[in-house]
Amino acid sequence: MESIHLNVALLRRRVPNLTKSARTVGLRPATVSNLCNGKISLGRTEVRTLVALASLAECSLDELIIRGERFEMIETGIKVIDLFAPLAKGGTAGLVARPGMGQLVVLAEIFHRLNKKKFKIAFLQPEGDHPEISDITEIVDFNCLSISEVEEKVIQIGKNTDVIFVADRSHVIDGTIYRLQEKWADLPSVTTFLVDLKGEAIDKDLPYGPLETLWQFDMELSARHLYPAIHPLHSTSTVLEGANLEQNHFYTQQKAQKLLRRYRELKSIVRVSGVETLSETDTQIYQRGEKLENYLTQPLFVAEAFTGVEGVHVQLEQVLVDVRKLIEGVYDHKDKEDFAMVGRISG
């Protein structure tokens, strides 16, 4: 089957305030956002929706739809990310979380790992005093104090190396990000990270506009210290489109989400009535869900000084093997505690 996807970069260049402008042609902002991040398959989209988008961007349908190309995944070695919401190379990733949920730790961890992959990281300093970003600024290659500085630096280094660009949501609101991305459109690979230091994004339906990768953090996981507290059901990526994933990845990801979705439903029952009220089948699903939820935790390299636990990198291939075996019941004999804050499953 031919891979087709939306030309999100073109849409951003032609229509900076894309989700807001969508209303002017009769489209819901959420629909446009979900088309851009892959939640809605392009193959199942109504023709009139695509025609409306093309008219908004003043382009043809052939320009709007890209055929035959695949989104390249940047493998991070972080289980929950690589399985459920892979980082799309050259795309825009947005983090949605309230303060204290660990988003800056995850960001620092990813930069630590990407540094080893020879990515160069440029950070646009936000206005005001933000002492909480010190762990990030120590890792990045370039701390830029102005828009012109980061623009020039990315152009300078982006011709010969993969670049990570990091900015606060405030620069999305004033349109700075879109203008910069347009100027960098001809560079081989600039992957953008958007973070919300004020914690306001979580209360917005479309906090950043269209994204290729969305990491939604989960308050419950954070409260239970199950880190990284990235929601496995609400986080998504354009890389997740079936045509862009290896079949084994797509199959395992879908099965894992189905298990976690049912597990979360059963958890509400267990809280009220206890696990003994579940049927034998539901008890099995619930217990496997607990183990999978624990398995998605992971020791991080940047947190070693605080946790005393050595960080681990888990290849996606190993994650798929572990998760598939867990879902199939191979590890039913093990305790749920055996899965928490580990790398691969042993034994």
Description:
GO terms for molecular function: ATP binding; proton-transporting ATP synthase activity, rotational mechanism. It comes from Halobacillus litoralis. Belongs to the ATPase alpha/beta chains family. It is found in: Membrane. Keywords: ATP synthesis, ATP-binding, CF(1), Ion transport, Membrane, Nucleotide-binding, Translocase, Transport. The strands form three sheets. Strands 7-6-8-9-5-10-11 form a seven-stranded mixed sheet, sandwiched between helices. Strands 1-2 form a two-stranded antiparallel ribbon. A two-stranded antiparallel ribbon has the order 3-4. The model has no long low-confidence stretch (mean pLDDT 90). The radius of gyration is 21 Å and the shape is globular. The longest helix is centred in the last third of the chain and has 27 residues, at 247-273. The chain folds into three domains: 4-67, 434 Repressor (Amino-terminal Domain), CATH 1.10.260; 73-244, P-loop containing nucleotide triphosphate hydrolases (Rossmann fold, 3-Layer(aba) Sandwich); 247-339, Bovine Mitochondrial F1-ATPase, ATP Synthase Beta Chain, Chain D, domain3 (Orthogonal Bundle). It contains 16 helices and eleven strands. It has helices spanning 8-14, 18-21, 29-37, 47-57, 61-64, 79-84, 103-116, 134-137, 147-158, 170-173, 176-183, 219-223, 247-273, 280-295, 304-307, 316-328; strands at residues 4-6, 65-67, 73-74, 87-88, 92-96, 120-124, 142-144, 163-168, 190-195, 213-216, 236-237. Helices cover 43% and strands 12% of the residues. The protein has 347 residues and is of the alpha/beta class. Helix 13 (247-273) packs across helix 14 and helix 13 packs across helix 16. The two termini are 38 Å apart. Helix 8 (134-137) links the parallel strand 6 and strand 7.
